[in-house]
Write a structure and sequence with these properties.
Length: 71
Amino acid sequence: MAIRIPKPIADDARLRLSDPLEIAVAADGAVQIRRAGEIPSLAQLVAQITPANRYAEISLGPEVGREAVEW
């Protein structure tokens, strides 16, 4: 899906083509579009990994073909 923002509105909001936006829905169903905050770097995202939010390895069955990787 895509949202087209008319040029006069984009100009008034000082939006550029590459600006990241966030879309939210209010309790009354109104759609809200706002400029996204800072996009975190990979290092910032990895720093948020803790034992509490890390999941254990999940088995998907026996290996097939050349899936086996030995570390």
